[in-house]
Every structure is written in structure tokens, then in C-alpha cells.
Amino acid sequence: MTFDKVIKGGMIVDGRNFPRYRADIGIRDGRITRIGKIPARDGADVIDASGLIVAPGFVDLHTHYDAQVFWDPYCTLSGWHGVTSVAIGNCGFGFAPARPEMRDYLMSSLTRVEAIPRACMEAALPWTWETFPEWLDVLDRQPKGLNMLSYVPINPLLVHVMGYEAAKSRDATPGERAEMVRLLQEAVEAGACGWSAQRSAPGTGFDVQRDYDGTPFATDLMSKETALALGAALADYDHTFIQTLMLTDDPAGDLAHLEELAAVSDSPILFNAVGTMANMPDAHRFILGWIRSCQERGLPLYAQCVTSGAGFTFTFENWNMWDDSPAWRDATLGTPAERLAKFKDPVRRQAMIEQPPMLFPFAETVILRTRTERFLPAKGTKLPDAARILGYDDMGALLIDMAVADELTTLLQVPQVNTDPALQAELVVAPYGLWGVSDGGAHTKFITLGAYPTESLIDFVRERNLVTLEEAHWRLSALPARAAGFRDRGTLVEGAPADIVVYDFENLTLHDEEVAEDLPGGEWRRIRRADGYRHILVNGEVTFVDGKETGATPGRLLRHGRG
Fold first, then answer.
1. In this structure, what CATH number is given to the domain that contains residue 444?
2. Which one of 134, 233, 390, 495 is at 20 to 30 Å from 192 when CA atoms are compared?
3. Residue 510 has what DSSP assignment?
């Protein structure tokens, strides 16, 4: 046979924003070797794609599957929704470098900031590495159902070089800075794709998430000088990029710094993240305008856009997203029993009432479930309405009383962003805006944003006609691949790796959220599945048929963007 596989009779949308066309695809040794008319007899295996769309696998640049890959080689939810390549190590958080005495800290930190259950990490992580090159070697050997790039997360790097106390209290010395640069370049030489860091200034109201003990992250205290040194360390590499968030009380200074960082690193910067807020309709427009001006000046900055409209569903047993309020931050530290005791403390209660969070405000919080009879009339309402119904003058007081009565099990939801469809549409069509920010592998009890590729095809193309199918596939595959150094991936062209989705566009269906008790350590998560993906291929091997895993794990660690 001429080909290992032939995908026969499909409508090809190749990811380049070219018009769709009907053709066959011949695959040999994991790559597309021919696109055209291919007799079925020339394929050892033939996939009938009649009436289906054949497109490049999706590229998800914002994930936290650093832990999950050790128990789920398909990195679901992403794998269920056509994603064939991911970047891990986002936001400056990860597991390397890691001396043995720092392992507990890294797991504690990831438990709070990314809400990855501690029990899962304890059950699954082998901890057979210390240096970043050793971490890459472990990832390389781990069976994978999709491809991976790994950032060097800067928080572990700072703590590794400076020590925990120093990294939490001061900037790096010149000698420490030089050692960080050495280790970063060692990691890049071994195949890392660049570096990532969350940077939000403590005490300014912009410190949106804190460490497991309530202190700022080391990256929050990292100076611009240190960041520029780490940026300059990438200047000699042509496959690296940077993912960062920057929030301080000096927005103009922040943007000027990021422009300088792009210039000295000569690397793309993914600005994380841009969403729309109905009460601040010009905020995303300002950032998108700045991004466009940077691109016009040859500075490779991209906006990572939260294009989904999904919200956070949570209880106070594990909620950690109101750290911008010192009182709520303090109350949501510790075990559920410790949290409940804090919620019951009248002094803390008063402080929590007086210091409501700015991120995800009370007014948008919906009460989905309560176990306490006197609060049942508020079920299904937003807090302002619930307060009126139940005779409360203050929404925070109601929320605290309800949480205490339910022993923290009150089920709540806050919208993440994009409550106004018209504003959301501005993100969707923004020039060179990257769709997604799935946070796959993180906040497993809160969100299901890993379904964003399916949501995008259904909502933005089929139902609202915001973009063509051709543009959607360019944004879901080719654009993120180019921004992030996934070399040769993201398009269906001869010679490219055969990362392919074959799906029924008209009948593509996104299921409702459900709870799955399928994590190690006896933990659970929220999931969303899809119907309509007939075949998903990674490096020429079929990983899913009609939503079911095949057992094949052809995914690769893409050192230097290749593999």
C-alpha cells in the first residue's frame, strides 16, 4: 500500500483561511504526504470522510496539564474537543526545577492557585526529576495522546535559585539573576518553549490570586530588571515565546515594559488574558488597540482572549478566586474545616462584609443550590434579588450566612467574562486575537473551558455567523501554532504532521456540564463532552473515534517546537 491511512472524500478546511475544497489525504509515517485524488486501494486503512469536515487539530496554548498528563494521556477535556497540541507550564506555575524539599510547596501552590486537587498530584506525580531538562525527559517518556510544549514556569525558578523566603521578600541579586538566566537557557537548549509568569502587584487591588499561604507569588515581586534579563536570554532562539499577565497600578508603565520585553527577547509575547466586561466595555478595546499598534510596529504581541461565555461554578470548600479582597483571601485559606471556622468568626465576618471582592462581584453571583430551608426561596437568583427576597441589606452578609448554614456546600456561580454577546463578538473578530484560554487541567471543580473549540464552531460560526468556518479553523489551529512555535503544525499541507480532526459540522453538539468521579485520589471534576467528532488523529494515528479513546498514545514532546 502507498499510504498508511487515506482520509477519503472529505471537505478540507486547511487552516490557512483559504476556501474549503474536497480532496483526499494520504498519510505515511505520521505525516501528510499527499492531498488530492487518492484511490482507496492505496491506503492500508481508509477513513470515510464523506459529508464531513477535515481540518487541522486544534492548538490550545493555555493549559495546566502538567499534572494531569500523568493520569490522563489524552488531557481531557481538551482531547475530547479536537485539541491535538497543547502548551503547559502556563502562568509561571509548574513542577520544575524542583529540589526534593520544594515538592510539597509546589503541590500546595498549584492546589490553591490552579485548584488542582492535592490528592491527585500526590497519587500520580512520580517526582523523578529535579532539573528542568530532567522534567522534559520525563514528559518525553510519558505516554501522551496529544503533543506538548512546556514553558519554564518562573515561580519555581525564582524559588529554586533564591530560596522560598528570599523569593517572597526581595528582588534577585545580579548573581542570582545570572544563575536564573543560565538555568533558563539550559532548559531552552533542552527543548523548553520559553517562559511564563503571572505578575500582579501586591497591595494594589490587582493581586488576583495568592499563594497557598496567602503571600504574593515570587513572580509578583519580580522586578522589571529581572524580567528583562530573562527575556534577553531568549533573544538567540527562534522558537521561543513568553506568556505573561501584568497587572499593577501603573498600566502605562506595564505596557511600555511589555513592549521592551518583546524587543529584548525578540520573541512573541502572549498577553494573558483579555475578556469583556459589561461594566467596563472599553477595557478590552484599549488592550486590543494597544496589541494592534504593537504588531504594526513589528512587536510580536498577541492577545490571549477568553472567548467562552462559561462561568465558574463553586462552593466555598475550594473557591479561591476572591484574593483581591484581603478579608475573603484570609477566609478562604486552609482546609474546609478551617474555612468554616473563619466564616463563623464575627470579627472576620464583619471584615468580609466591609471588603467585598472586585473580581467577580457579588452582584453577578447566582445561587444554584442551598441545603438550608430558609434560603430555598433564593435558589436560582442573583445575590441582589436573593437579598431582597430574604430581607438582607447586604449581599455579603447573606452569602456568609448561607455558606455557614450549608457548611460551605452552597453551590454558586459567577460569570467569568463575556456576559454581553455583542462585546464578546468584538473579541472573536479581533485581528490576531487568540481564542481560548481553556485553563485545561486547572480549576477542575470550577470550569469546563476546555470545550472552547466545539463552542467556537457552534456559536461563532454555525449559529451567529461571526466568522467563516475557514477563519475559525485558522484561529483555532494555524494562528496559535504560529504564535507559539509549534513548527509545521496547525495546517493541512503536504509534509505537515498529520494532526487532524474529522467531524460533522452540522451535527456537532456540545453536551451540558456533568460531574465525573474519575480522578486519582478519589477526586472529581466537572466535564463537558461533545458529539460529532468522528475521528481525531495525532501524528497520523487515530486517538478518538466518535468520542471514544482508541488507546493509541502517539503524542510527542515537541522540543524546540519540533517532534
1. 3.20.20.140
2. 495
3. E
Q: Which domain holds residue 362?
A: 319-415
Task: Give the total number of structural domains in the chain.
Answer: 2
Query: Is 43 a member of any domain?
Result: no
205, pLDDT greater than 70? no
Contact 221, 176 (CB under 8 A): no
pLDDT at 246: 79
The answer on 142 and 268 residing in a single domain is yes
What's the half-sphere exposure (Cβ side, CA atoms, 13 Å) at 500?
35
C-alpha to C-alpha distance for 46 and 194, rounded to whole angstroms: 39
Out of 3-12, 208-217, 343-352, 510-519, pick the least confident: 208-217
Q: Of 199-203, 215-219, 507-511, where does mean pLDDT reach its minimum?
A: 199-203
Would the pTM of this model clear 0.90, i.e. be above it? yes
DSSP label at 460? I
**Is 540 within the bounds of a domain?**
no
My answer on whether 292 and 333 are in the same domain is: no
Q: Is 385 exposed, middle or buried (0-12, 13-18, 19+ CB in 10 A)?
A: middle
- pLDDT tens, residue by residue, 29-65: 999 999 999 999 999 999 999 999 999 999 999 999 9
The Cα–Cα gap between 388 and 268 comes to 50
Q: Is residue 108 part of a domain?
A: yes
